[in-house]
Amino acid sequence: MKLTLKIWRQKNASDKGGFATYPVDHVSKDMSFLEMLDVLNEELTEKGEDPVHFDHDCREGICGTCSLVINGKPHGPLQTTTCQLHMRSFEDGQSITIEPWRAKAFPVVKDLVVDRYAFDRIIQAGGYVNINTGGVPDANEIPIPKTIADLAMDAAQCIGCGACVAACKNASAMLFTSAKVSQLALLPQGQVERKTRVEKMVAQMDAEGFGACTNTGACEAECPKGISLTNIARMNREYFSASLTSENV
Amino acid sequence: MILDSKIPAGPLAEKWTKHKFNSKLVNPANKRKYDVIVVGTGLAGASAAASLAELGYNVKAFTFHDSPRRAHSIAAQGGINAAKNYQNDGDSIYRLFYDTIKGGDYRSREGNVYRLAEVSVKIIDQCVAQGVPFAREYGGLLANRSFGGAQVSRTFYARGQTGQQLLLGAYSALSRQVANGKVKLYPRTEMMDVVMVDGQARGIVTRNLITGAVETHAAHAVLLCTGGYGNVFFLSTNAMGCNVTAAWRAHKRGAYFANPCFTQIHPTCIPVSGDHQSKLTLMSESLRNDGRVWVPASKENAEKLRKGQIKVSDLKEEDRDYFLERKYPSFGNLVPRDVASRNAKEACDDGRGVNETGEAVFLDFRDAIKRDGKAVIESKYGNLFDMYKQITGEDPYTSPMMIYPAVHYTMGGLWVDYNLMTTIPGLYCLGEANFSDHGANRLGASALMQGLADGYFVIPYTIGDYLAQTPPKKVDETHPEFAKVAQEVKNRISQLLNIDGKQTIDHFHKKLGKIMWNYCGMARTAEGLAKAKAEIKALKKEFWSDVKVLGTNEELNLSLEKAHRVADFLELGELMVDDALNRNESCGGHFREEYQTPEGEALRDDENFAYVAAWKYMGEGQEEELNKEPLIFENVKLTQRSYK
Amino acid sequence: MSWVTKTLKSTLGRKLIMALTGLFLILFLTGHVAGNLQLFYNDGGEAFNIYAKFMTTNPVVKILSYLTYLSVIGHVIYSIGLSRLNQAARPVGYAVSGSSTNSSAASRNMGILGTIILLFLVGHMYSFWYQMHWGAIPTVTYEGETYKDLYSVVQIAFQQTWMVVLYVIAMGFLAFHLSHGFASAFQTLGWNHAKYSPAIRAVGLVYCIVVPILFAAMPVYIYFNS
User: Fold this and answer.
1) In this structure, is residue B345 part of a structural domain?
2) Out of B461, B551, C38, C49, which could bridge B557 as a Cys pair, Cβ 3.0 to 4.6 Å?
3) Is the dihedral of CA C218, C219, C221, C226 positive or negative?
4) Residue of chain A whose alpha carbon sits nearest to that of B168
């Protein structure tokens, strides 16, 4: 396969950045998308040019590190992570535009690498159960209906990649935030701090400068783990009822 | 030096309890006067950092990722073992202990392994309390499955993403302490060296991966929780960033490296498809519960299959060799990982491998689908089948999967005593980065168990014993040793940047990987290992004169990051070869072709090799010194593992 | 900041305002379309004019109408605020957009659709609402009581081709706005449930087709019947 890559290059956070075009040859259909970029980077290095920087790690679709917008779609044409995308999803001779996640809360570090610390701070605001190590009851002490455990797991599957933010026209982080809110709101272990948690996490999400949700559903459609919009609805419910009934004036 | 494992005396079941009681405590009011550095935020690192911060210590946590949640623990699929005996099927702490010792081919410490089994039950309680959504039965209680050849169902799981859920649990505990101000998090910061003052670990030197700034951090103790070194093979199931650098730097400062040649090759990985391959993808071992492993019975058929002259469906039942079921009737497809891997390799070496490369065997679900229906198989393995299809473009529901072994886990690591302290006082090592619990082979679903056991339930006790004997007044960053080590790090950076050679870093990494895989992989020989040693030496020389590292230090520079890591892998590779060459026996993941039973099984030599090989770094270009820690078995009887 | 303002200033709170005002306007539209169906009576406008007088004088309706004005103003002001916030959340946009593959055009263009509908609304209110309240319009007498003859104003207005075309097009925009807005409001309120959401979506779909068609049918009917 022969391809033309149009890649966003930006030296650092303060650089303006722009697109550079690279023709690539000898691309095999069995390569993953990132392996195709590896090959490009090897060629660039041999020529003495700075390789394209992009985030990646596990290459199994679970760590959530890879983050490329490929032809306008986060993680490319399939509903999967970039690392699980293979070149057989592309046509010979195709032109591919590769951009970083775009959001005020995800500043570009270099080329296609962005910072997603905002997600960590949202979790730090309350995405946990306030317990110390030790002193907890036996694991089977509280039975949890399978359906509830499954729903919680559906939400907990979020890999924190940020594709939801990248896909959303408003760069909203509602799907990410709601996934954690949902998981802990569904499980009995999360009940104690249920109200405070959602209030704090939403406040942090807003403080980070993410947009609001306009229910376009783009996040769900692009989420590599298929996190459902029902989580956002649940977070809305949780938030409104917490606002009305919590003790936090 | 005599290696003192500090295993407490007394009956096995009382060792840990007694040890905890005998450990000194730090007064609650004094805990805030102690600083602890935790390097790595995987299961071991995140759980340790969170637990120590909860106790009141000031923790600095470092990760080279952008977030602690990216650590490679996240990729573990299958599950986590715990001796809960919820299934009433005869499990117990002693049985988990016994299985682990036996599975590790009697090359681990009884005391450590028993403690691991003992605290395993608390891990599950802790994780459930954190909100980890483990799989449940309809009655609302936790579900278990049998995993990796265990005769009891003791594996807890969260779909195929157990590692993810456990890591996110530890990450949430860590995040809570970050919010409390007890943990200061340093993302995108890589540890470059350990700083020692008067023979004790007193801090580390780091490089900020965004700005390139070389910084120093002082503390009363340093914990390395930096994972395994499987990427020395270039192709492995490890994440791209996994590396040995932190452990290796500590090794060069005096921490002994134990059993480096013990690597685990996982049998169910997607085969290599070409030279462009950057990593191998593991598929959960649980697939072997229903899939049947086979190759064509004859070389002729295998060759025709490889060339595409016949199809899989053309092969009749009698043309297929279900070699695991044939050779191991009682365990069948569920034999331990090392046995399954080696047999796959043998079949391929015999010319009966499939795939275009001849380096693959079938994992067939035809009979399982016929027996249980497609829906049942889909509900069990749907996500794995989808993943397989996405990567290979083939549908495992209609044609058998192809698998091949790949490097997956490293049992070796920094030598630690019962307190998880390395041979450097004040320097601890947790999780996969240490060598302690898995012997020569790790059982499935035990890696998560060990990482969390070390972090949640071992280090909080053992570190207190050390800190209680350390004055709160700390050696701080102004001590000249910090500046000295920082300068050494800077020198090494500029050395790498100034080589200005012709070959890329990956060129060296791939070459090293090939040497390691061919000579220090699934089967090893003295002759091959000697050859490997010479080749690695030459490659290392070439690296330092001809590698091309682009860019500058003062920016995000992936080439520079990788150059450091590959440079360390080159040194580690040589030590692995030394270790493999020294160990004139076969055990677990270490298979020396010279030492096998007439049936081709691993032949241990308990008389001469029932010891931990702990290597001491002797200086640049010097051969490392071997130190032996004898393994004493008071409770189990050493037997030949048999899965027939 | 009190908890009320804190909630209403959050992104979720602002969305709540959008949803509540939107839903109230949907209720209003339902009443509006039902009442205006009287334009189809062939009674020379008697029923319609009596209805128009009732709607402008009844105290309960008055309260409802003030709520409607408030909803329109709230819906508009909050949408402006949210749009600005949303734009600020992505200062640098994408060179290539793949949004057509992951979301509906209506959902992505609610602001534009809403703006067009607002402009239409201003004209529409000037033509009828303003005239009814303060304009010099003819009167008629039914059973001794005097009524403003809004019916004839409507009749005259929709004799003009451009007016009819404009109204039909505007109702098309309204249809698209509602096609997303209806179900979206319920989602924002947190009403997304496996059991009820299919029904909400179905009602929303019927609503966004039927109501604008009925509205559009009125000028068309008058145009061809006079």
Assistant:
1) yes
2) B551
3) positive
4) A156
The 10s digit of each residue's pLDDT in B78-128 is: 899 999 999 999 999 999 999 999 999 999 999 999 999 999 999 999 999
Q: How far is CA B167 from CA B127, B442, C63, in A?
A: 10, 20, 56
Domain boundary among the residues B343, B374, B406 is at: B406
Domain that holds residue B527: 490-605
Contacts of B130 in chain A (CB under 8 A): 128-129, 131, 189
Q: What is the pLDDT of residue B600?
A: 82
C-alpha dihedral sign at B595, B598, B604, B608: negative
Residue C97 domain-assigned (yes or no): no
Choose among C89, C110, C193: nearest Cβ to A104.
C89
Which of A64-78, A231-245, B49-63, B148-162 shows the lowest per-residue confidence on average (mean pLDDT)? B148-162
B145 carries an active-site annotation = no
At C25, list the tokens: 């306007």
Instruction: Write out pLDDT tens, residues B500-554.
Output: 999 999 999 999 999 999 999 999 999 999 999 999 999 999 999 999 999 999 9
Query: Given an 8 Å threshold on Cβ–Cβ distance, is A217 in contact with C102?
Result: yes
- Provide the residue range defining the domain that includes C214: 3-91+103-225
β-pair partners for B602: B596
Task: State the Cα–Cα distance between residues C19 and C17, nearest whole angstrom.
Answer: 5
Mean pLDDT of chain B: 95
The reported pLDDT for the residue numbered B384 is 87
Q: Report the distance separating Cα B65 and Cα B59, nearest Å.
A: 18
Tell whether the model's pLDDT for residue C1 goes beyond 70.
Answer: no
CATH number at residue C124: 1.20.1300
- Chain C residues close to A20, C-beta within 8 Å: none
C130 CB contacts (<8 Å, ≥6 apart)?
Answer: none
Percent of chain B's residues with pLDDT above 90: 90
Residue of B nearest to A200 (CA): B179
Q: Do chains C and B touch (3 or more CB pairs under 8 A)?
A: no
Query: Coil, strand, or helix at residue C19?
Result: helix
Report how far apart, in Å, the C-alpha atoms of B243 and of each of B142, B234, B563, B590, B606 are.
35, 10, 11, 21, 32
Q: On the CB side of B203, how many CA atoms lie within 13 Å of its CA? A: 23
Is residue C98 in a domain?
no
Please check whether residue B395 lies inside any domain of the structure: yes
- CATH no. of A3-110: 3.10.20.30
- B208 in helix, strand or coil? strand
ipTM beyond cut 0.95: yes
Instruction: Say if A43 is an interface residue toward chain B (CB within 8 Å).
Output: no
CA distance B587 to B603: 7
3-class secondary-structure state, position B78? coil
Query: What is the CATH number for B510?
Result: 1.20.58.100
Residue C139 lies in a domain: yes
Would the pLDDT of B271 be above 70? yes
What CATH number is given to the structural domain containing B397? 3.90.700.10
β-bridge partners, B156: B80
How many domains is chain C built from? 1
Check residue B330 and give its pLDDT: 87
Please say whether the beta carbons of B550 and B606 come within 8 A. Answer: no
For chain B, what percent of residues have pLDDT higher than 70? 100
Contact C64, A179 (CB under 8 A): no
Among the candidates B380, B406, B432, a domain finishes at B406
Would you say residue C135 lies in a domain?
Answer: yes
Whether the CA torsion B265, B268, B274, B277 is positive or negative: it is: negative
- The CA-atom distances, in angstroms, between C204 and each of B252, C39, C174, C185, C216 are 69, 25, 13, 10, 18
Q: Tell me which fold the domain A117-245 belongs to.
A: Fumarate Reductase Iron-sulfur Protein; Chain B, domain 2 (1.10.1060)
For chain A, the structural domain boundaries read 3-110, 117-245
Report yes or no on B455 lying in a domain.
no
